[in-house]
Amino acid sequence: MADEHGWIYFETSAMLGTHVRDAFYLLSCTVMNRLNEQDPKNVLNQEGKATLGGGGGGGDKAGGCC
Fold first, then answer.
1. How far apart are the first and last CA of the chain?
2. For 44, phi and psi rounded to 5 degrees?
3. CA gap 44, 39 in Å, rounded
4. Per-residue pLDDT tens over the stretch 6-56
5. What are the residue ranges spanned by the domains of the chain?
6. What is the spatial distance between Cα 24 and Cα 30, in angstroms, rounded to a whole number?
7. Where are the beta strands (DSSP E) in the chain?
8. Alpha-helical segments (H) within the chain
9. How far is Cα 35 from Cα 22, in angstroms, rounded to an integer?
10. Sign of the dihedral defined by the CA atoms of residues 38, 42, 45, 46, in that order
11. Nearest to 63, CA basis, from 28, 54, 27, 52
């Protein structure tokens, strides 16, 4: 169903904590990259602002975060 609708599907386990951090990271990177694509002059795209992935250099693919 996820493939049919173009959704992201990620199996996780809240009880064991399996893949939970990865799922949140993927979700946040996806949201940030879509925001960057929609509005390249977004405040979050300005140099020197915090980026996801830590360290301020995590994946500088055309201003994206991942």
1. 25
2. -70, -15
3. 10
4. 888 889 998 999 999 999 999 999 888 888 888 777 665 555 455 544 444
5. 2-45
6. 10
7. none
8. 2-5, 20-38
9. 20
10. positive
11. 52
